[in-house]
Design a protein that fits this description.
Blueprint (H helix, E strand, L loop, with lengths): L1 E2 L2 H12 L11 E5 L14 H17 L1 H4 L5 H26 L3 H4 L6 H7 L12 E9 L2 E3 L2 E3 L5 H8 L2 H6 L14 E2 L2 E2 L4 E8 L11 H10 L6
Helix pairs in contact: 2-4
């Protein structure tokens, strides 16, 4: 199972690294959750600061949302309070690396960048991919603001108002989960991947990039696809 950038980490290991090594793993199933298989406009160097700002806000909001799942949990304040202080540092670092172009992990997801061009070039299945079953979980986030009500509740209304004004949609130019383009999540080898199954949340205010694993549908899919369900 791979999530977000982990999707291209897994694929690069299987398709680019291991073919030149002595080790030949056998891979039966791969699950991509909101994976950056294609690209994300937020990884373009000029957008790194904006990505850091958005990611910190989403992380703080997701931490606030934990009590909604488990009201007695002490995890939310433990996570959210340090995240608020960390936010300023992350944004400062983002500005620095834009000037120095120093973050290889972000560069790997750059639209039209050399890494993704090589990874997604049409190619025969790598050793270990024969018979590989692929699954994906994808979503398209849409903020919901009606009068004084907003969803998701854990994200500040002010942030959702900005998102409701299509800030990220304008930047990314297509449907997305606030970090990854929805179409990119299943874009493998310069084409939509032939998937054995795909769970689509569709357009929803409930699911964004940092809260997939808080959704019961994701747990059910993983248990089913990876044969984790108890008999």
């Amino acid at each position: 199972m791979s999530y977000s950038r982990g999707g291209i980490v897994y694929r690069s290991l299987l398709e680019l690294v291991l073919p030149g090594a002595d080790w030949r793993p056998r891979t039966g199933r791969a699950v991509f959750v909101a994976a950056t298989n294609g690209d994300t406009q937020l990884a373009a160097p000029g957008n790194w600061y904006r990505l850091a700002d958005l990611y910190v806000n989403l992380a703080v909001g997701a931490a606030r949302g934990l009590p909604l799942l488990a009201p007695a949990s002490p995890v939310s304040p433990i996570v959210s309070e340090p995240m608020q202080g960390l936010g300023a540092l992350v944004k400062l670092l983002a500005r620095h690396v834009v000037e120095r172009a120093a973050v290889l992990g972000l560069a790997a997801m750059e639209p039209g960048g050399p890494f993704l061009k090589e990874l997604n070039a049409a190619q025969a299945p790598a050793q270990g991919e024969e018979g590989l079953r692929r699954f994906a979980i994808i979503s398209e986030f849409q903020a919901q603001i009606e009068g004084g009500e907003h969803a998701p509740r854990e994200l500040p209304q002010r942030l959702l108002t900005r998102l409701g004004d299509a800030l990220v949609d304008q930047l990314m130019g297509e449907a997305n989960d606030l970090v990854v383009n929805t179409a990119s999540m299943t874009h493998i080898d310069d084409a939509p991947a032939p998937l054995d199954d795909c769970y689509r949340f569709g357009a929803t205010p409930r699911v964004y990039h940092l809260n997939y694993f808080a959704q019961p549908e994701v747990a059910r899919c993983l248990a089913d696809w990876l044969a984790l369900s108890a008999d």
